[in-house]
Amino acid sequence: MSKVYFSTARTLRWNYRHSVPGKLEALLETMDLSSRFTEEDWVAVKTHWGSPGAFRIVPPVMIRKVVDAVTETGAQPFVTDTVRIKGLDYIEVANQNGLNHLSCGCPVVLADGIFGKDSILVKAGPLLGSIAVASAIHDAPAMVVCSHTKGHINSGYAGAIKNLAMGCVSGRHRDQGWQKGRGGMHCHGEKGLQWDKDRCTLCRQCAEICPLDSIEFKDGEFTYDGETCWHCGRCSRVCQEGALTLPQDDETFMKSMAESAAAVLSTFKMGKVVYVNFLFQIQPECDCMPIADVPVIQDQGIMISDDLVAIEQASVDMLRAAPPLPQSAADEAKLKPGDDILAKLNPRPLQLQIDECERLGLGIKKYELIRIEPS
Hints:
Layout: E1 2-8, H1 20-30, E2 42-46, H2 60-72, E3 76-81, H3 87-96, H4 101-104, E4 108-110, E5 119-123, E6 130-134, H5 135-139, E7 142-148, E8 150-152, E9 156-158, H6 160-165, H7 183-186, E10 194-195, H8 205-209, E11 215-218, E12 221-224, H9 234-238, E13 244-245, H10 250-265, E14 273-279, E15 301-305, H11 308-321, H12 329-332, H13 341-345, H14 351-359, E16 367-371
Parallel strand pairs: 1-16, 2-3, 2-7, 3-4, 7-14
Antiparallel strand pairs: 1-15, 5-6, 8-9, 10-13, 11-12, 14-15
Helix pairs in contact: 1-2, 10-14, 11-14
């Protein structure tokens, strides 16, 4: 049974130690980072930087607490993510969302370079064969994975597994293209983008959201470049008329995500990766989207563990037990206490990603939830 440490988002006393940042400091102390990181270690602090319009990321103040805790060990941290939109634009998004070297207290760098192709092929499983792990993640001897738990168009739930499987992998490999990047996970079972001309209103939202400018409308006809498209699915998600779809084999996708997460973790020695899940601002969409809807579940708190599977299972269990918030997408869908809110809003077999990671030996689902609260 693995240990998962947890502090609630509720603050009942007017004292810094009872604040959420103060609680995060206490949680980090439980992991004894000085026994995990050395002065020679460059430690990747992996988080999602958001998107234009998507601001409900892990708050910079929390990232700073993680950076400070790593710095106290003598190791050298850097905050990082992989290219989701054009690299220089993504750096500016991070800055606007409050993530920069001043707020974080360390360098903020793109793990796969400003062009999103700086990656190294790592052996994966039978589905992927190999996957392009971002070079700064691949070469870092240690990592703290800071994940914002939320919904996701493809995986139903996005937490630490998704942060590893997609967030630590380039969109494309320099020589082998998107097939060895995160698109290699997205495309399993797909038949390509499917356009229904009769439903399309030519609003062009799909073209506007495409991070690679792969979509065009020529003489009123939808076209896209299959060579540059990395199958992220954002275009189909923003289509409010249902004119654009991207069919997905859910089971294969979840299994390929687990393979990718395993490939990323294979580049680290045992005990060199710590996971921090922030169960805050739990929105129905990923931070990749151009918006951030109101949370569908109340803030729950922070979890920390060195077991990927355990922390993900504990997070999903807690979110499943939480009631829906009024005036949210969950309320609009008429969801009730006891409903699996994220699974209902994004109908995907989200548990499968956790089960598959356990099958691959990345951790165990049985956990002991230990509450860490100031006295």
